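Quick one: structure for this chain?
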Amino acid sequence: MTSARTDGVIYAGLIAFGIVGPLLFPGYTNQIAIMWLMVLMASTWDVMGGQTGYNSLGNIAFFGIGMYASAVVQIALFYDVGEYTAAFGAIKVEFTDAQYFTGLALGLGLAGVIAAIVSVLVGLCVFGLRGPYFAIGTLGVAVAMAELISGWNYVGGGGGISMPVFPGEAGASSLAFYAMFFVLAIVAHLFLRWLYSTQFGLALNAIRDDEDKAEAMGLHTLRYKLIAWAIAAFFMGIAGAVFGNMIGFIEPLEVAFPTTTFGIFMVAMALLGGKGTLWGPVLGAILFHVVKELTWTYLLDWQWVALGAIIVVNIVYFQQGILGWAQDRWPAAFGLKVDEGGDDATPAGAREAAE
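Got it. Here's what it folds into:
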């Protein structure tokens, strides 16, 4: 984004807040945990939407797949899943501490792997589409996933699944899942920072700038797109697994595949902060989440109007996002050079290279 020193200050501030936040505001632990989830969602969406130029509306599908994959693994290790979801109290369900944490660890790992595998299979079908057709196609995938799960009685269908209960007190569970989201968001961000600095990141930007030319120059564009989407799906799958356990109950439409909330939020957050940049999605996610929580608290019944207004203003007046607007206005502060013969800052490609 800017200098290494500035980056270090930002990282130190975020990590410090991540550690002391739930201690200073214990009543808002879950809300801060969701903020880290939002950061993760916006950052992983930007892998395809910003860096590669494929605006997906279906990334929420991997969130739900990871959630259900984790649930099935956690239950199937010790009980028959069909009986667990259909018994309605006919069987006595008890998980020991060791069983719970063993199932949770395996569930989180497999959630990411299964989501990544599904993303590759779906990508082989939808990456023949571009532009708005790709966006609508991926949205259809997310909607279809929700409907398929709704009709699958083995995993509870539309009735959902009650997740194994976290052992210990409620406060302990909140801190545990908070820590998971915090660590996951930091790890994903650092991984993406490294990824964008490699030739792989340059290949993604080449696809975004001119995919046909990149293909003609020898880039196996489909391979890069599949890998990029699998990376995003891997983190989204783990996030879904953590979220399902934190909520304690999962069902297809509102929790696992919330296309009209989280599915739209992740796109809006990346656009708000500035897509195609490392820090833009992080900035957008934090601001969007803060505004969302404030409007939910003080503007009840008007919260959707407020969020919709933010999106409209963003698209009409700040199409490059807050970070992109700031870079154009104060390029020197971001280490960008301005051409002597004009007032415009360096092109977007140079801007991203500087980041």
